Amino acid sequence: MDKFYRTLKGIAAVAVMGAVVMAGTAQHARAQAAGGQAAAQTAQPQKKVKDQGEYDIYNNVLKDVGAQTWPKLLQDLDTWAQKYPDSDYKDDRLYYYVQAYSGGNQPGKELDIAGQLLAKDLKTVFKDPKQVLTVLYMTCVNIQKAPAATADQTAVGEKAAHELVDFVPAYFVAANKPAATSDADWTKTGTDLTTLANGTLRVIAMRPGMELLQKYRTEKDVKYCEPAEASLTKSLQQFPDAAIIAYNLASAALCQRAAKPEKIPVAIYEFARAAATDPSLGGSADPKAVDTYLTTLYTNYHGKDDDGLKQLKELASKSPFPPADYKLESSTDIDKRKEEEFRAKYPQLALWLSIKSQLTDTNGEKYFDDQLKGSAVPKLKGVIMEARPECRSKELLVAVPEPDQQGTPQSVITLKLVADDKPDALTGKPDTGATAEIQWEGVPSSFTKEPFMLTMDTEKASITGLNMTPCAPPVKKSAPKKSAPKKSAN
């Protein structure tokens, strides 16, 4: 979580903004310190110090601010508050407390003090707009830094951010630009402050969901994932263009995948949303790492499909949430769908491939003996590769080619012709080759794994599609001629 907040501070150029604001504050402090009591009373004619003692304390406070000695400043402010609790300069004192706690890295206390000022109209409380800017800026920074902001502190931070958004365009005009500041720097400062304010609102919106995600990561308990998803969904609805919210929403959905695998496509969509809109996540991440993670997750779930991922990014770039018809199949679902389509298109081939798969398995012989041998197999389809003998064949060697198979298919089934459980034979010569397709029903009788061959007993009547040519009649051997008896010489 600490890393997360350090990252979000980078949404705006916080260090640069701090230098700008503090420079203005120091200038204001030096001006008041140089003018002394009279200058202070001239700047705020309605205010008066109680006595010389309060003046001296006030003067010390201004010097501390100018020197940015925060521990000394807090000490002098506490002395001032104890000795002069009802000072006319109570609001100014709170203003310096804001700087002391911010400079001393005590964000919670800064927010508590800032809350007292923000309960009023800052533009009325402070005549110098730079003081208004300082309070709003420092409060935005500190609500981001606060490790466990209370509900009241969060409300103060949110109010400061909204007021800063409204204050920037009114203040950053040409009339207020210091002579030594370029137009470009002046414009950039205002832009960066607006970015800071909007970033603060995003941090506030994200914080509940991020804290739940952090509890999940720390405690390894998925009970935090669903409420984190619900919270970050609201955040993304509020800031639809925030890639960092989409990314963490995806994480909250993904951590539920064991019990709810249907969350995986949602998570992949949100990761794609982040990668498509801002893979740097507002400057907090390595864009290449974010894209690589998305690609790996997509491929592991859906399978390698470069065009599909590209199309998903294009879809996700258009909307922070998946459209109603969004669907991303898992590789398992794709295989199952393709298998069902294959079975519907090639039912006989699918049946054979299932039988063959089990026969070639390590327990293939057991499968044959226990389940296949002697059991009638539904009609199969194949091509006759060889007939034995070629004419009046008693066995047909059959191949079962797959669609688009290249090369000569190998015989995997021997059809043994039987009739009344006795050997039988065809009456002609069957066609053979890749076009000699037949269908048959039979009963497996034997099996060898190496080389693979399944023998099935089948009757001629169970074979369809068989084309035969008549066999040449057998050549009858003529009886040898009897030689005439020799006549006797007598």
What this model shows, in words?
The protein has 490 residues and is an alpha+beta fold. The protein folds into three domains: 2-208, no CATH class; 221-324, no CATH class; 346-400 and 410-465, Beta Barrel (OB fold (Dihydrolipoamide Acetyltransferase, E2P)), CATH 2.40.50. Helix content is 57%, strand content 11%. It has 18 helices and eight strands. Strands 1-2-3-7-6 form a five-stranded mixed β-barrel. The chain has a two-stranded antiparallel sheet with strand order 5-8. Strand 6 and strand 7 form a beta hairpin. Helix 6 (107-118) crosses helix 9 (151-171), helix 10 (183-219) runs antiparallel to helix 11 (225-238) and helix 17 (347-360) packs across helix 18. It is rod-shaped. The model is unreliable at 1-16 and 33-44 (pLDDT under 50).
List keywords for this structure.
alpha+beta, single chain, 57% helix, OB fold (Dihydrolipoamide Acetyltransferase, E2P), five-stranded mixed beta barrel, 490 residues, two-stranded antiparallel sheet, disordered N terminus, 18 helices, 3 domains, rod-shaped
Distance between the termini: 138 Å
Mean pLDDT: 89
Structural class: alpha+beta
Largest beta sheet, briefly? Answer: 5 strands, mixed, barrel
Number of domains: 3
Number of strands: 8
In short:
The chain contains 18 helices and eight strands. The chain has helices at residues 2-8, 14-43, 52-67, 70-83, 90-103, 107-118, 122-125, 129-145, 151-171, 183-219, 225-238, 243-254, 263-277, 287-302, 306-316, 331-345, 347-360, 364-372, and strands spanning 377-388, 395-399, 411-419, 422-423, 428-430, 437-448, 453-458, 468-470.
